[in-house]
Amino acid sequence: MRIVLRYFFRGLRLVLSPVMLITEKLSTPQSVERSEQEQAEVDEACRQLALYQFRSCPFCIKVRKEMARLGLKIEVRDAQLDPDRRLELEEGGGKVKVPCLLIAHDDGRQEWLYESNAINAWLHRRFGADAQTS
Predict the structure, then answer these.
(1) Partners of residue 75 on adjacent β-strands
(2) Hey, is 15 helix, strand or coil?
(3) Nearest-CA neighbor of 72 among 38, 99, 106, 114?
(4) What region, left, alpha or beta, does residue 94 occupy, with left being phi > 0 and alpha being psi -120 to 50 degrees?
(5) Quick one: which H or E segment has residue 45?
(6) Which SUPFAM superfamilies does its entry note (predicted)?
(7) Cβ contact 63:53 at 8 Å
(8) Is the backbone of residue 114 left (phi > 0), alpha (psi -120 to 50) or beta?
(9) Of these four, 47, 88, 127, 133, which has the most CB atoms within 10 Å of its CB?
């Protein structure tokens, strides 16, 4: 029975993954408008960030959409298909769970932020319209 369930869910993923990726492409929002200087500052700040993700994970898609909405150029690292990235995630963050945002602080510390809602909230606080005015 376990084998039947395993293959059922694998088949379901094979069918749903392309649908989810196409839906992501069709529903990704336009990014916010910034001046060239503001965008350059945001791009520089994004160099300290990396998103560990699985391509068709719905929670990862949610974070990628927020990144697109905020106009963020954050490095995306595939922890599903790249064994080196998977190992980095496990050793650095302590578990293989996606999405995970790696935040490299100026003092050399690394912060591993899990959960799509927490990541999106952090991105919004850091790069949203409210952050630009303060």
Answers:
(1) 50
(2) helix
(3) 38
(4) left
(5) helix 36-46
(6) Thioredoxin-like
(7) yes
(8) beta
(9) 127
Give the CA distances from residue 81 to residues 55, 56, 67, 87, 92, in Å, rounded to whole numbers and listed in that order. Answer: 9, 12, 21, 11, 18
Three-state SS for 12? helix
The larger pLDDT score, comparing residue 23 to residue 64, is at: 64
Task: Tell me how far apart the alpha carbons of residues 15 and 57 are, in angstroms, rounded to a whole number.
Answer: 13
Residues 78 and 55: their CA atoms lie apart, in Å, by: 7
Residues facing residue 102 across a β-bridge:
50, 112
Length in residues, the chain: 134
pLDDT tens, position by position, 33-72? 899 999 999 999 999 999 999 999 999 999 999 999 999 9
